[in-house]
Amino acid sequence: MISRNAGQTRLKMKFIIILCGLVSIQAGVIKEDNCSGVIIEGVYYEKENETLREGNDRLYYANETLREDIDRPYLLVVDNSTNNLYFSYNIKENDDEFKSARLNLNTKEFNNIEGVTNGFAQTVDQATHEIYIGGSDGIYKYDYGQNKAELIGERGSNIWTLYFKDVLYYSLFPHQFLYVMEDGQSKRFVDLEDTKVDHFIIDNEDDIFFSNYTGLFSQKKGTKNAVLYAESPVLRSLATDKFGNAYACLQDGIYAVEKTTTSLKKVVEVNDAFGLAFDNDNNIVYSDASRIIRLKIYKDKTC
Asked: Where is the signal peptide (predicted)?
């Protein structure tokens, strides 16, 4: 079991790691008269307001604010069946106590998720739409219809990260080694059995992307041959879009993973970004230190 002091230490460490740091979004200006938005990875995105920076021709776009005045929204994930966004945030201004919450992206209805101690990590099985939440005393399965959370594993353990694709992947604090849980049984994930993991995803080609304090890496699932993408980045989140393409959320913005060049390409600049997800229309949803924002696709433009 984790002692109260150990739990507090874990929360302090989380605060230090995620607090390494008004959202400003920069992208290429579209010159056509009928196209005043931004293009990201070949997709046209709608703007709501625009401000011309004095002295040059770059436009800044303020997009749909889904929630504000919330402290460090983190580890965002969307259930595509309900378009509910699940995330954690800090609930004490002068202390580090986290809580998981949900935000309906259609109605903007917000609810805290009760029954999880220091809810921090969350993930969704998109096939069954089951929600898993990691707290300071184990892994919970959350029933959205009943609004109840049930402890299902790792009782008394501090859960650091959660990810679901075919099976549930998770790591424990402070060791941060990755495990898989299948049919109620847990074992070390052999592909990364000797590697500490902060963030972890698997893309549509079964390429694993993971980060730790040394960098952002990728390797083909079923192998142990890792390739470095970025050395020691201030990385806050990894996510895949609806098509399984990998993205990284760094402190200074959102990046698309460029596998052909083993690099990252900045697609949205954000001041002090914290989290990233994609809604069920594949809109970008991201957070900064105090807000959750959606960058909406403009479906009627062909720029």
From this structure: 1-27
Please, which residues bridge with residue 237 across strands? Answer: 249
Q: What is the dihedral of CA 151, 155, 156, 159, to 10 degrees?
A: -70
What is the dihedral sign for C-alpha 242, 123, 125, 84? Answer: negative
- Alpha-carbon distance of 18 to 21, in angstroms, equals 8
At residue 96's C-alpha, the angle toward residues 98 and 141, to 5°, is 20
Residue range 163-191, pLDDT digits in tens = 999 999 999 999 999 999 998 899 999 99
Measured distance CA(284)–CA(183) in Å, rounded:
33
Query: Does the residue 32 lie in any domain?
Result: yes
The answer as to whether 206 is a domain residue is yes
pLDDT digits (tens, 9 = 90+) for 278-293: 999 998 999 999 999 9
Integer Cα distance of 297 and 270 in angstroms: 18
